[in-house]
Amino acid sequence: MPFVNLLAMGSPNAGEGGASSMLSFLPLVLIFIVFWFMIIRPQKKQQDQRKTMISALKRGDQIITSGGLFATVKDVKGDRVVATIADGVKVEISKGSINGVVEVGE
Within 13 Å and on the Cβ side, how many CA atoms surround 49? Predict the structure, then answer.
C-alpha cells in the first residue's frame, strides 16, 4: 500500500480527499529542500572552510583582517593571533576578524 494511502486511512476525512490534504504539504516540503540546497548547505560549507583556514594558521602566514590590515603572523595563542603590521609594530588580532590568508605572490 502506498504511503499516502496509509496516511489517508488514518485521517478522519479518509473518504473525503484525505490524500489531497497530504499533497497540500508537498510545495512546503519542496521549498524547504530548495532552501536547504541553495542557502544552508553552501553557507555551512563556507563556514567549515573558514574554520579549517583559521585553525591552520602558522607563523609566517600573511593575513588580511576584516578591517583591511595586512599582517604577518608571529604567534598563535588560543583565540588570538600576534601579528606584525609594520617593522617593530606587533598587534593582537582576534581569530574571528581574520578574513583570509594572502598568498605571497599577491
Answer: 9
